[in-house]
Automatic annotation (TrEMBL):
Gene Ontology CC entries for this record: cytoplasm; nucleus
Binding positions for ATP per the UniProt entry: 19, 21-24, 117
Pfam families: AAA_18
Enzyme Commission code: 2.7.4.3
Residue ranges, annotated region (LID): 116-126
Functional note: Broad-specificity nucleoside monophosphate (NMP) kinase that catalyzes the reversible transfer of the terminal phosphate group between nucleoside triphosphates and monophosphates. Has also ATPase activity. Involved in the late cytoplasmic maturation steps of the 40S ribosomal particles, specifically 18S rRNA maturation. While NMP activity is not required for ribosome maturation, ATPase activity is. Associates transiently with small ribosomal subunit protein uS11. ATP hydrolysis breaks the interaction with uS11.
Domain of life: Eukaryota
Catalysed reactions, as listed in the record: ATP + H2O = ADP + phosphate + H(+); AMP + ATP = 2 ADP
Name assigned to this protein: Adenylate kinase isoenzyme 6 homolog
Matches recorded under HAMAP family: Adenylate_kinase_AK6
Alphabetized UniProt keyword annotations: ATP-binding, Cytoplasm, Kinase, Nucleotide-binding, Nucleus, Ribosome biogenesis, rRNA processing, Transferase
Taxonomic source organism: Caenorhabditis angaria
Length: 178
């Protein structure tokens, strides 16, 4: 089982409300660093790592144990180099991640993005409230060491570029900082 001390490359978690750009940024980071990109939603759908379908939210209910078992070997690898994208984080083992980035977005921009995706009014309201209260940032801060949790604004292409550069710089300095 790898740790931050034994991993050759860092494992990165990108989290935040739906519509903040997690998948886009995660793919860019993985591509630029030649890391493995693990889009949790896609893994769940493709490998049936869910319990049931929630009609109200129009999505599958994640089976956390199945998911954790499914990605454990990749996350515990001494080579590291995984970029994980998911809107939640509290159930992932702390030892898996060297950096946790929480993407944030103004509620008006988030509302527009979710409406463009065709989210129901109920689902938009739930996600906008989550962003207002900073629930996912709080979850990350409660689940991981404060020094590895970073809050990033993700509202414009310029901010996305800045976030990409910041994450890549931190990843490049991973072994040097230990």
């Amino acid at each position: 089982m790898a740790t931050a001390e034994t991993r050759l490359r860092p494992n990165i978690l990108i989290t935040g409300s739906p519509g903040t750009g997690k998948s886009t940024l995660g793919q860019q980071v993985a591509e630029k660093l030649a890391f493995d990109f693990i889009e949790i939603g896609k893994e769940v759908r493709e490998n049936q790592l869910y319990e049931e379908y929630d009609e109200q939210y129009k999505c599958h209910v994640l089976d956390e144990d199945k998911l954790l078992d499914h990605i454990q070997d990749r996350m515990d690898s001494t080579s590291g180099g995984a970029v994980v994208d998911y809107h939640g984080c509290e159930f992932f083992p702390e030892r898996w991640f060297d950096f946790v980035f929480v993407l944030r977005c103004s509620t008006d921009k988030l509302y527009d993005r979710l409406a463009q995706r065709g989210y129901s009014d109920f689902k938009i309201k739930e996600n906008v409230e989550c962003e207002i209260f900073g629930s996912l940032l709080e979850e990350a801060r409660d689940s991981y060491k404060p020094e590895i949790v970073f809050e990033l604004q993700s509202e414009s292409p310029e901010q996305m570029d800045e976030n990409l550069e910041k994450i890549c710089e931190l990843a490049a300095g991973f072994k040097k900082s230990q």
